[in-house]
Amino acid sequence: MNDEAKVLIETDGPVGRIRLNRPKALNALTHAMCDTILTALEDWRADLSVEAILLDHAEGRGFCAGGDIRMLAESGAGDGVAARAFFHAEYRMNHRLFTYAKPIVAVMDGITMGGGVGLALPAKYRIATENTKFAMPETGIGLFPDVGAGWYLSRLPGRMGQYLALTGHRLDGAEACALGLATHYLPADRLDAAKQGIIDRPQAIAETLDALTITPPDAAIMAQCETIDRLFASDELEDILAALAEDGGEWAEQTLTTLNTKSPQAMKVSLRLLHEGATMMTFADEMAREYAVASHVVQRHDFLEGVRAVIVDKDHAPRWNPATPEDVSDHAIDLIFAPPAAADVWTPN
């Protein structure tokens, strides 16, 4: 399949259609796919015949599982140029979606993780279904929740964002709705009607979706809100781990077990990113910060080792270095967050 066929770009009446079409890779994004989407958005921006954008996937069980992780690791093991170029293009696409004047509808039917979250969350209308599996699982491969997650997760209620960032917990469609990450919950068998309604009446998207929306099932995650706020209250990883250990409850024990499999460095990076993300004045500021951090992390040991363990060898036994939170110094995190040289600063255009 050539790069153009991995994203299907077309207009259907007054609606611009962006359809991810890389099903064997769960529609994971490549650099070329990001460029294709960005070009389509630019072409439609001043086209008065295009009134709305519909973003979904052509086939398969995943909306989008993330980015081209193997390529990022291969590049990171070398000079990192291709990895930085990918992040640069992807983040420009994320920013363009975030600032787009025309309404965008993202259909999160299936796996929506990593880069897929970065595609969906800028949309004004975000549809979840019974098939939605929404997560930012990057700490499990030594990375961190990016594509604007420092902005989005830091603005969730309480400490939910910190919990999701550290654990990579998968939300179902009902939970995504309850947290405001999705705006509408539709049974998957109503999606075709929703898409046709959007094409027929692009100026009445809210009415179309509201008419097809059903009350979602109970959101299990909401029962843990108070516990999450209490146990994830600190921006210090060691404090969170200590609170979980001291709690003694089954949920805390399971959560601690999960965190013990994640990269200590990546978890500390994630906590700092969310702490600073909450104060960012603009989304462009957030993306510039994430680009600088990603440029460092992609060439660090933990990312290369995480990809080896989870994606390449699939032994799921990463050997993190540093191996413990205590061994990840403040100085090491400061270096990862160090401002880039002027020539290396990310810009939205």
Short description:
This protein has helices at residues 31-45, 69-76, 81-99, 115-120, 149-152, 160-167, 173-178, 191-200, 205-212, 225-231, 237-247, 250-259, 264-277, 283-297, 301-312, 330-336; strands at 7-12, 15-20, 52-57, 62-64, 104-108, 111-113, 125-128, 133-135, 171-172, 184-185. With 349 residues, the chain is α/β, with parallel strands linked by helices. The strands form 2 sheets. It has a 6-stranded mixed sheet with strand order 1-2-3-5-7-10, with helices on both faces. A 4-stranded mixed sheet has the order 4-6-8-9.
Explained architecture:
The protein is 46% helix and 11% strand. It has 349 residues and is an alpha/beta fold. The strands form two sheets. A six-stranded mixed sheet has the order 1-2-3-5-7-10, with helices on both faces. A hairpin with a 2-residue loop joins strand 1 and strand 2. Helix 1 packs parallel to helix 3, helix 6 packs antiparallel against helix 13 and helix 11 runs antiparallel to helix 12. The longest helix is centred in the first third of the chain and has 19 residues.
List the helices and strands and how they pair.
Elements: E1 7-12, E2 15-20, H1 31-45, E3 52-57, E4 62-64, H2 69-76, H3 81-99, E5 104-108, E6 111-113, H4 115-120, E7 125-128, E8 133-135, H5 149-152, H6 160-167, E9 171-172, H7 173-178, E10 184-185, H8 191-200, H9 205-212, H10 225-231, H11 237-247, H12 250-259, H13 264-277, H14 283-297, H15 301-312, H16 330-336
Parallel strand pairs: 2-3, 3-5, 4-6, 5-7, 6-8, 7-10
Antiparallel strand pairs: 1-2, 8-9
Helix pairs in contact: 1-3, 2-3, 2-15, 3-14, 6-13, 8-9, 11-12
